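Render this sequence as a predicted structure.
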Amino acid sequence: MSVRIKKAAYGGCPHDCPDTCAMIYEVEKGKLVGVKGNSIHPMIRGGLCVKLKDYEKRHYYPDRLLYPLRRTGPKGSKQFERISWDEALDEITSR
């Protein structure tokens, strides 16, 4: 029988909500396997919103964006090109 060892990593929600939820990421063998709210957070008291349900599945979703993209065609055409992080930040800060 193998022993499962989970480690806890502490962090915040990646969404831009006003609650700024504190999360506990459960990691097993270097892979995110679960998330839960941190019970000592004064707003959420251990609960998380529905957007974070199954967050670990979305984290490893094969079509998840990993790099910045610039739209090259008309809006809705799904035409993009990959750009560097520096280009993306320059473009955002220039607006």
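Summary. Residues 6-59 form a domain with the Phosphorylase Kinase; domain 1 fold (CATH 3.30.200.210). The beta strands are 6-12, 22-28, 31-37, 69-71, 80-82.
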